[in-house]
Specification:
Length: about 260
């Protein structure tokens, strides 16, 4: 039996990761997470320090930058035995502007580009970033299942979805993760957390500290907020993002409060 105090979780049943991970959205240009991270070398050093400190799960997305978060994570962690997740189906052509495209051809092209940017032969976890209103979720998931079958991705995840969306996706392929906004002050998805736990699906809350995705700074006390999530359910993997090594190391001490 898996307990909330377990420090690791097996994504998809086989990818064992430390439940305190690292989110890559902040390693981009500011404002609006647009463009490359200004201190590229510092970002490389931060990511490597995280891996050296025991972080084994790193989360990214095509829209972070766009592309540049994948690129800095790929450069920093090339050759290291860590689990890297990214997302597709959402792009960011300009600051504050996003486009959504979950069509088969777009997703397969983005997977190929992510393989190059992440410097990997296979993407451990590829997540549909948002449901395309013009493309049924079954079509998008079928495209990811196609890439999974040919070895380009290991596991399929979803982001910004409801329980109904998840159930529809599960009729097409196994789903290894759900990534929705959830923290100790925003608990609308509490039932979905429990549902994914029942189904052995990882729940990866974004905004774990209550921060605005497009702004720096967090509303919640980091260690307390992260510890609350780790206690909340054994399938939760937290991915606090930071540009500071000191903050990264402080985040890793959240287990002391669990």
């Amino acid at each position: 039996m898996t307990h909330a105090t377990n420090t690791t979780y097996r994504i998809g049943g086989d990818l064992e990761v430390n439940r305190l991970g690292f989110g890559g959205m902040r390693l981009t240009g500011q404002p609006g997470n647009f463009g490359p991270f200004e201190d590229w070398q510092g970002g490389l050093e931060l990511l490597r320090a995280a891996a050296d400190s025991g972080v084994t799960f790193f989360d990214s997305a095509r829209s972070y930058g766009p592309l540049t978060a994948d690129q800095i994570i790929g450069e920093a962690l090339e050759g290291r035995e860590v689990t890297i997740a990214t997302k597709g189906g959402v792009d960011k052509p300009a600051p504050g502007k996003i486009t959504v495209d979950g069509s088969r051809d777009t997703l397969l092209r983005e997977i190929d580009e992510a393989l190059v940017n992440l410097r990997r032969d296979r993407i451990d976890l590829f997540q549909l970033h948002r449901i395309d209103p013009d493309t049924p979720i079954e079509v998008s998931v079928a495209a990811l299942a196609e890439a999974q079958a040919d070895g380009r991705i290991g596991h399929i995840g979803l982001s910004n979805v409801s329980r109904e969306d998840l159930d529809r996706a599960l009729t097409v392929a196994p789903i290894a993760s759900v990534q929705n906004r959830f923290n100790m002050s925003e608990t609308n998805d509490a039932d979905l957390v429990d549902y994914t736990a029942e189904k052995d699906i990882a729940f990866i809350p974004y905004g774990p500290l209550g921060a605005n995705p497009m702004q720096q700074g967090a509303k919640l006390a980091p260690r307390e907020a992260l510890a609350w999530l780790l206690r909340r359910s054994p399938n939760i993997i937290v991915i606090p993002g930071t540009t500071s090594k000191a903050h990264m190391l402080e985040n890793l001490t959240a287990w002391d409060l669990v």
